[in-house]
Amino acid sequence: MISFDEAIALLSGAVAPLGSETVHLTEAAGRFLSGDLSARSDAPRRDVSAMDGYAVAIDKVENGAPLRVAGESRAGMPFDGSIGDGEAVRIFTGSALPEGADCVIMQEYATREGELVRFTEGHGPARHIRFAGSDFSEGDRLLAKGARLTPPAMVSAAAADRTTLDVGKRPKVAIIATGDELVAPGKAHDSTDTMPETASHGVAALCRAMNAEVVASAHGRDTLGELEELAAEALAAADCVVVIGGASVGDHDLARPMFAAHEMELVFSRIAIKPGKPVWLGKVGKKTVLGLPGNPTSAMVTARLFLRPLLAAMQGGSVKGELRFAPLPLAAPVEATGPRETFLRAEMTEEGLVPVSNQQSGAQHPLARSDRLIRRPAGSNAASAGDLVSTIDF
């Protein structure tokens, strides 16, 4: 078995971007940039007010002395002219600073009497001006190649003043769930020998959240001939095939043999992690095949750790960018770990990070509450409430 870090390094080397396409800005959310995004102009393009108030030449203002209000400056409708001696201009947030002004006095310090305005003490020393180019300048890189267009990043993308963006192509994914005991949800209650097939629904949701297109989702019985047909159909339709189950050491574990006719090259198999030891990765030409464990919790944990980075890499994103672990304090103790690196499901509560009580690989109920994974190195001692542990979003 190899380590988690070794497996991720092999995955990074095996997966290449699918290429790029140009999309309208309104269709770019969630996608990965295929090139640096630079600004077309300065922001702001002129000195503008950071507050509602009055634009003045500050060295000509005496507290309590009246100034004539020469006009006003609104966003998109600047004051036409310059400020003269004894004058002020009513100004609003985001509006262009009139020529001759070097300060905006907040309206809270102003007393208006018709066309005259007086100011009280306490308005300095801040000038309340956003200077031209203070946010960014023309040609500045606002977003780097490979950046994901998250909601905040979409603001920066729009600020670049581009109608279209070059982004990575969306991967096409085919999902194959295996197991004679599995049936479609809604039918399992008819027999005590069957159970709902659940993992593919979570995996498909993860794929769509990563902007991948799920082109097929099938269930195959543990029969080599049937699985070989599904494998051929999936490879013909998709860039990435995800196989759930059938990857242990039993007589009916056919996940890898189902691709034998396609001369699949195995990148790795069996990782020293818990849950998820049976995870494997293969290549059929330029197409990628990822094998996940059959137990639902194991499938979802390993999908988070391997499928999500894989889909990012296929779109030109960063594998490491999808695996940013951060320390958080525990609000409840965790037990010592065994010989494999362990990923515990946990919930962020008002009290802090709490591992869910049922950590079995087949447990499905706790998944809905689990929003973090705790990464525990092999052979770790027990940890107490207040201790920092390495975590990642789940």
Helix and strand arrangement:
Elements: H1 4-14, E1 20-24, E2 37-38, E3 48-49, E4 53-56, E5 67-73, E6 87-91, E7 103-106, E8 110-113, E9 116-119, E10 129-130, E11 141-143, H2 151-159, E12 164-168, E13 172-178, E14 182-183, E15 195-196, H3 199-209, E16 213-220, H4 224-237, E17 240-244, E18 265-269, E19 273-274, E20 280-284, E21 287-292, H5 296-314, E22 326-329, E23 341-348, E24 353-355, E25 372-376, E26 388-393
Parallel strand pairs: 5-6, 13-16, 13-17, 14-15, 17-21, 19-23
Antiparallel strand pairs: 1-12, 2-11, 3-10, 4-6, 4-7, 5-9, 8-9, 18-20, 20-21, 22-26, 23-24, 23-25, 25-26
Q: What do these coordinates show?
A:
This protein has a six-stranded mixed sheet, with no helix packed on it. A six-stranded mixed sheet has the order 16-13-17-21-20-18, sandwiched between helices. Strands 19, 22, 23, 24, 25 and 26 form a six-stranded mixed sheet that branches. The longest helix has 19 residues, at 296-314. The protein has four domains: 4-18 and 169-322, 3-Layer(aba) Sandwich (Molybdenum Cofactor Biosythetic Enzyme, Chain A), CATH 3.40.980.10; 21-40 and 140-168, Molybdopterin biosynthesis moea protein, domain 2 (Alpha-Beta Complex), CATH 3.90.105.10; 48-130, Molybdopterin biosynthesis moeA protein, domain 3 (Beta Complex); 326-393, MoeA, C-terminal, domain IV (Beta-clip, Beta Barrel). It contains five helices and 26 strands. The chain is elongated. Helices cover 16% and strands 29% of the residues. The model has no long low-confidence stretch (mean pLDDT 95). Helix 3 packs parallel to helix 5. With 394 residues, it is an alpha+beta fold. The two termini are 24 Å apart.
